[in-house]
Amino acid sequence: MIKVVIIGAGNVASHLYRSFSEAQGLEIIQVFNRNIDHLNFVHDSEICISDPSKLKEAHLYLIAIKDEAITALAQELNIKTGLVTHTSGSVSMDALMKFENYGVFYPIQTFSKNMPVDFSEVPLCLEANTSENLNFLKEVAAKVSNKVFEVNSEQRRALHLSAVFVNNFSNHLFTLAQEYCQQNELPFGILRPLIKETVSKIEILEPYSAQTGPAMRNDQETINAHLAMLDEDKQKIYKILTESIQKLYGKKL
Amino acid sequence: MIKVVIIGAGNVASHLYRSFSEAQGLEIIQVFNRNIDHLNFVHDSEICISDPSKLKEAHLYLIAIKDEAITALAQELNIKTGLVTHTSGSVSMDALMKFENYGVFYPIQTFSKNMPVDFSEVPLCLEANTSENLNFLKEVAAKVSNKVFEVNSEQRRALHLSAVFVNNFSNHLFTLAQEYCQQNELPFGILRPLIKETVSKIEILEPYSAQTGPAMRNDQETINAHLAMLDEDKQKIYKILTESIQKLYGKKL
User: Fold this and answer.
1) Where is the chain membrane-spanning (chains A, B) (predicted)?
2) Which residues contact B68 (CB under 8 A, 6 or more apart)?
3) Do A82 and A178 reside in the same domain of the chain?
4) What's the domain count of chain A?
5) A239: which chain B residues are within 8 Å (Cβ-Cβ)?
6) B112–A205: do the CB atoms touch at under 8 Å?
7) CA distance A238 to A248
8) For an interface test with A, which of B197, B226, B229 has the most A Cβ atoms less than 10 Å from its Cβ?
9) Is A172 contained in some domain?
């Protein structure tokens, strides 16, 4: 049995807790958070702790807290032999180099507290300070996901940045469309099948090949008509993305 | 039996052909395109025509050609009684006002030639010059889709513009991420589950409520680190979308 401690009480921590609880061969022996009230997602309250000095010996520690708090917490923790990992996309592995065994366990997914996620489909990006630790991390990761990748710190930062584009920014485009629909008394739901298909398409095609629309066809008349319909802020976004598409596909600007 | 003529040979025309062929109570009696070779998606070559003067009497004409060609084609067509519609998101219904009966049959979906689409899930936005014509159009639309909406020309233009945001622009963000992944020797596929989840989420949540990421959390350190990793063009896009998120959620810029 591989003994695991989870540190944190946010979305990532709660999804790790759920997935690790259900996996074969893994045992969560403690969940730590300074405010113990936030650990209400843990079924067994006896394994919840709020005092970092009470941490038990485990094989693996998963630090799933805010990026900016990782370094400070690491200084406080007194862990001798277990492998200490964080789950951040942007924090360097070296933030944990005070430990003998350290690494990164980064799930590329967007987690919301009450949205169940099929963890077996979540890509896990692993990094560790020794090949032995990396192999151990791979063994653990394979128990919870089918998609395990070895990714160095630089690549992980690149992935995290890519995730901002595909997740945060595209969700914001959906939000702007939602706002615009409301202004025109249209239900946003009318766009949902299109959004779904946009994504289904790129499961088969590369996004580069799936591009359509006025910018792609260089349809300046439609582009001008659209620009005239938008407020200044949305206009700027429309313009910059249109120019970026035209540039990429060698259309005239 | 409702007799239908399809005009055009592009993605929309071929998907309309497929869906109308399979529907109960509809009969496609002709498909018109100037270059008859492009009508290879039509099973029965005898109904294909390339001479607009050979158009038969039908109950419904669906013009699915490029936006900029609609007005000119309409001038050429000699249709007496049937209902003449176009399928464009951005062209006004008035482009067809020379006919006695006219309207719009706008499917909000992204069509690629070899990607089958479940037409019953495609929202159809209808408009017509009389309520009688509108009712007839609704009757036809209900035979091919479960999602039928009455939408005026102004709302339709707003929808078309929204579709550019949710489809064209978000696909371009995926393409930029793909390019960036390639530069960092990462397979784009590693991001696919995240993209899928981004969309699954907004089937339950409104996109406004689903927003996450450094801009949303006002995490300026990560934002600065990301900006430093990008070339000038991607930097501009990152910046403008980050500012737009911060503005929308009342974060400091």
Assistant:
1) none
2) A219, A221
3) no
4) 2
5) none
6) yes
7) 15
8) B197
9) yes
